[in-house]
Design a protein that fits this description.
The protein has about 450 residues and is an alpha/beta fold. The protein has helices at about 15-25, 30-40, 45-60, 70-75, 85-90, 105-130, 135-155, 165-180, 195-200, 220-230, 245-260, 260-265, 275-285, 300-315, 335-355, 385-390; strands at about 205-210, 235-240, 290-295, 320, 360-365, 390-400, 410-420, 430-435, 440-445. The N and C termini lie far apart (about 55 Å). The model is unreliable at about 405-410 and about 445-450 (pLDDT under 50).
């Protein structure tokens, strides 16, 4: 269906260019390799050309010569010969090819026309749905953005393989740079040296889950990490807070950054000496590349759309989500909650790969873990979280202490950060301390604070 303003207009295509490419690939194996890197059968406008290129592709994949004789035979076997124009039409494809040298240029024209036709189709579908008042507006917008990004993702179709020599050279260069940089991490550093020794930082495309019982410090740990990345390292970070407002989140960040008792910030009972610390902390946060989304009960599609915008516009390098249980799945309400959580978990894993950044999601663990060390089996509502995640860590409080730190926080809680799963590395336990007054975590080892 064409949009109303486009009725009677022919979709973008060039029959001559399509013929030139088909003729070139039948004459030259080098032209065939270039075309196969850029084009797919559905990129051709004419049905006959789609069938011809599909058979050429099949011949190439089967390591058979893609010439006039083998192509005609292949089309005949598939009962597509007449639909493809017949033997005479196929033979004529090679007669009017001026040169095979420009096949990549012509192939890109075909591909761009294909993208334009997809845009027309998408806009037609969305126009029709936009008139339907039963459609959810936010879901429609998110779906539109998703479809546009799919076209953008496919606009670079270079799937060329690399030889081992190229990869090993690039890898050694990275290792040398890390050596000269003093052992820097390959991923985004968390701010906890002991954890980063295990993970080498949070890696791109990884789906990372932090689990704990309620009120154990999941949000505080995520904020401590995000603050270190954005404030100290100036790394652009996205933070989705589904449980509290952006202002409440900022109060926590100010308390942790300024080292001012959070209760005094909440009730306004500040000391005169607090204002200079608060002003300095506010300045650091103001200049930090931290981007906060505080839509409560956000739908999955909307979350993905906002994350794409953050990556495109702000170039974020990591994304925090607080927390999985408050995301609304797109599935209907009659689907069991554990299946909805499974859908959400798979989608977050897919999002990490799509954006090529670490996605750090918080998750509650079941009541059965109360008072004991949590395990992977305790992840709440869905075993798929354990399956999908590349990294799973748990917060496990140990005991309160009266150890004084450099900021005179008299009460701290020694805490284990248990790295229970790491798909591409070792597991283990990191020793942290939680400082309730400032709602922040620090490394237990002296001098190893974020």
């Amino acid at each position: 269906m064409m949009p109303a303003g486009n009725l009677g207009r022919v979709p973008p295509h060039s029959e001559d260019v399509e013929k030139a490419v088909l003729g070139a690939v039948l004459l030259s194996s080098e032209a065939l390799e270039k075309a196969l890197e850029i084009l797919r059968p559905e990129d051709f406008y004419k049905t006959s050309h789609k069938l011809i290129f599909e058979s050429i592709q099949h011949l190439s994949n089967s390591q058979n010569a893609a010439d006039l004789i083998s192509l005609t035979d292949m089309l005949r076997q598939r009962d597509h010969l007449d639909k493809a124009g017949g033997p005479s039409y196929i033979a004529a494809l090679t007669s009017d090819v001026p040169t095979t040298a420009n096949v990549d240029y012509y192939a890109k024209i075909i591909r761009n026309n294909s993208f334009r036709r997809k845009l027309i189709t998408i806009s037609s579908e969305l126009t029709s749905r936009a008139y339907d008042e039963s459609e959810d507006t936010q879901e429609l917008i998110a779906e539109a953005e998703k479809k546009i990004f799919e076209i953008l993702d496919n606009s670079s179709m270079s799937n060329q393989y690399q030889d081992a020599g190229t990869i090993v050279t690039e890898t050694v260069n990275v290792i040398e740079k890390l050596y000269h940089a003093g052992g820097d991490y390959t991923g985004v550093p968390s701010g906890f040296p002991e954890l980063d020794q295990f993970t080498s930082g949070f890696q791109n495309s990884e789906y990372i889950v932090i689990g704990a019982r309620p009120s154990v410090g999941k949000t505080a740990l995520a904020l401590t990490m995000a603050s270190y990345m954005a404030v100290q390292k100036k790394i652009p970070i996205g933070f989705f807070t589904l449980e509290m407002s952006g202002k409440s989140l900022m109060q926590r960040l100010l308390s942790a950054e300024a080292k001012i008792d959070s209760s005094r910030i909440r009730n306004g009972m500040l000391k005169h000496s607090d204002f200079s610390k608060l002003t300095e902390a506010a300045g650091r946060l103001y200049e930090s590349p931290l981007y906060i989304e505080d839509t409560p009960n956000i739908k999955l599609l909307e979350l993905r759309a906002q994350a794409r915008r953050m990556k495109k516009n702000e170039k974020i390098r990591a994304l925090f989500i607080d927390y999985i249980g408050l995301i609304e799945a797109e599935s209907k309400n009659n689907i069991p909650r554990h299946e909805q959580v499974a859908e959400i978990s798979r989608s977050l894993k897919s999002l990490a790969r799509e954006l090529d950044i670490p996605v750090i999601a918080l998750s509650q663990v079941g009541r059965q873990s109360e008072g004991k060390e949590p395990t992977l089996a305790d992840l709440r509502e869905s075993g798929s979280i354990e399956q999908d995640a590349d990294v799973v860590m748990f917060i496990h409080k140990q005991r309160e202490t009266d150890k004084e730190l450099d900021h005179n926080a008299k009460t701290t809680i020694e805490t284990d950060l248990i790295l229970a799963k790491q798909r591409n590395g070792p597991v283990g336990t990191c020793k942290l301390v939680f400082i309730p007054r400032f709602t922040r975590f620090e490394s237990l080892a002296k001098g190893s604070k974020p």
